[in-house]
Protein: Pimeloyl-ACP methyl ester carboxylesterase
Amino acid sequence: MKATLPTEVTLSYDIFGPEDGPVVVLVPGQHQASLFEDVQVPYLTRMGYRVVTFDLRGVAPSEETPPPYTVELLAEDLAALNELLGLGACTYIGYSVGAMILLEFAMKRPDLVERAALIGVPWKASKLQEAIQAEAVTRLQSDQKVPALLEGVYRAMYLFGPRALNRDAFIAPFLEGLQGWAESGGHGAIGHAEAARMFRPSEQEVAEIRVPLLVVGMEHDIVAPRQYARELAELIPTAEYTEIRNSGHASLLEKPTEVNNLVGEYLRTGRIGKPLSGTRARERESDDSHAT
Structure:
């Protein structure tokens, strides 16, 4: 399905699950919503939730509008889609850039947020991530092409953790699939790269958030380092921190069972915002028996 929004963009979206189920909106990163639909959607609909997925502005089959994009603009798209569908205050789960959008959403549109889970949110960049972002923007703006094999290796190295990288059975299909990203470009790729690079909310801004949040860090994430994820949760009085061990940034691919278990527990218990002894942030040590 497609919807043309007041923000002057047409977005592609889908709705799954029972009509009377509580609504969960999945907010993707710089990829198609199908990344969620393969694993998270079946799990959530079995739990009885009505799940909304959509593709960001600039990601096919949504419309690719000319840059500049900002995280603020992408959050406005989300608000417009919510209002068009009449969702009201509901639950959101965001990954990577999608988690950045939800952080902005929690600051600017708390009226539409019942609670939200932010998985791998790059709200503050390390020096390495600053360099990765700068390289991406420069390459895309100049229309430089990276050899396909190099592109696959490069992306795998910063998306996955060391255990996954050293398991041939796991990494082989992704090496081939990630090579296709070498040809990615156009307005959407540039727009998302620029938006991610510019989004730097202050500690004072995020500390004013009062909607319940779950911040999920990954042990080996270099895109959204876990120390910054933990810091974000500590700044927000209504946030809780949890961590997935033995995973890089691409936890939806590397640790789908752990992601689903975290999301399921969060949706069932609603413990966000309750007092925690010693610190606001609770670090979850995921069961090594599921480690890849």
Notes: The chain has 13 helices and eight strands. The chain has two domains: 2-124+200-290, 128-189. The radius of gyration is 18 Å.
